[in-house]
């Protein structure tokens, strides 16, 4: 048998490609540190209107940095790890959809998809400007220190109720289909008093007036430790003849998204900071105007409005002098 000599460099590209394929991981693999996140559980999908579906899920295991929501094979949403629901919009009326959710680690690796959930958007209802009636009396009972069960009498609508929104402090925190008149709300804190209301929505997106509130207190004690911003720091800055206080902090880790903070300056409530868009997932920053005089001493601290509508604990108080 005749030997065929290998020409130098002829096989180098192929060898390099094979070595690269053998050494590289994928976004779905175990190439990073630690295991990939598990699949989210308890995924539900409810068509709230003719062009939107509300998708919810339970938290996956530890190591989650964000969740990605898919409509079929297409990614249609991404939320931080603390958020467990999203409204998928710009859909078509009278159309079936399939959704899955995947957890992503901080280094970009995706865990396995959740089980598929299906929802069908209703037909579009033109020129419907009549909102559903107010849902009937809401009742509730405490499940444990972190969950309550709510039920209510059905609302009425001339073309049918498509969904119900459960609200705390005027903020939607849960949703169920229009045929459902009971649900369990989780992610609460022990030893805390809550007021819940329910609103009905039709296929055209019209919202009913809020129901009368039901007030419940979860059992247990809550000293609010763990709900305060951490790493709080304040420095003075001089710009164009004026002094500013530059604030920086790490948001508390809670089950949900924080969109509002209350800032206390020298013992008084100075301002309420509300994020207009997506809140920062990492360290937060804000600046306060502190006048034009140097040498003024200020005391500053802040707290977050938690996803359950209550205020968390205050951060450590910092003292800063303008011009120093």
From TrEMBL:
Residues 39-124, 134-221, 228-324 form the Fibronectin type-III domain. GO terms for molecular function: hydrolase activity, acting on glycosyl bonds. InterPro entries: ECM_Regulatory_Proteins, FN3_dom, FN3_sf, Ig-like_fold. Keywords: Carbohydrate metabolism, Glycosidase, Hydrolase, Polysaccharide degradation, Repeat, Signal. PROSITE patterns: FN3, PROKAR_LIPOPROTEIN. Residues 1-27 form the signal peptide. Residues 207-227 are annotated as: Disordered. GO terms for biological process: polysaccharide catabolic process. PANTHER family: FIBRONECTIN TYPE-III DOMAIN-CONTAINING PROTEIN, TENASCIN. This is Fibronectin type III domain-containing protein. It comes from Streptomyces griseoluteus.
């Amino acid at each position: 048998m005749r030997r065929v000599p290998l020409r130098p460099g002829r096989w180098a590209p192929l060898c390099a490609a094979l070595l690269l394929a053998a050494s590289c991981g994928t976004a779905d693999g175990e190439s990073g540190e630690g295991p990939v996140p598990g699949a989210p559980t308890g995924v539900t999908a409810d068509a709230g209107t003719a062009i939107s579906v509300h998708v919810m899920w339970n938290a996956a295991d530890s190591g989650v940095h964000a969740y990605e929501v898919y409509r079929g094979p297409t990614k249609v949403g991404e939320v931080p790890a603390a958020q467990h629901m999203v409204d998928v919009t710009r859909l078509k009326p009278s159309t079936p959809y399939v959704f899955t959710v995947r957890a992503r680690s901080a280094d970009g690796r995706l865990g396995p998809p959740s089980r598929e959930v299906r929802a069908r958007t209703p037909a579009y209802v033109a020129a419907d400007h009549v909102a559903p009636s107010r849902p009937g009396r809401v009742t509730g009972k405490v499940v444990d220190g972190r969950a309550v069960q709510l039920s209510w009498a059905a609302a009425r609508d001339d073309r049918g109720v498509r969904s119900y929104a459960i609200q705390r402090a005027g903020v939607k925190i849960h949703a169920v289909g229009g045929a459902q008149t009971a649900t369990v709300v989780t992610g609460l804190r022990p030893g805390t008093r809550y007021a819940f209301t329910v609103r009905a929505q039709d296929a055209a997106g019209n919202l009913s007036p809020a129901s009368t509130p039901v007030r419940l207190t979860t059992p247990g004690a809550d000293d609010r430790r763990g709900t305060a911003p951490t790493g709080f720091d304040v420095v003075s800055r001089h710009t164009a003849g004026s002094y500013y206080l530059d604030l920086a902090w790490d948001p508390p880790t809670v089950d949900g998204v924080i969109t509002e903070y209350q800032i206390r300056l020298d013992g008084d409530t100075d301002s309420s900071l509300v994020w207009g868009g997506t809140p920062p997932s990492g360290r937060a920053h804000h600046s306060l105007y502190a006048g034009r005089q140097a040498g003024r001493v200020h005391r500053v601290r802040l707290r977050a409005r938690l996803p359950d509508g209550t205020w968390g604990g205050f951060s450590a108080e910092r003292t800063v002098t303008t011009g120093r």
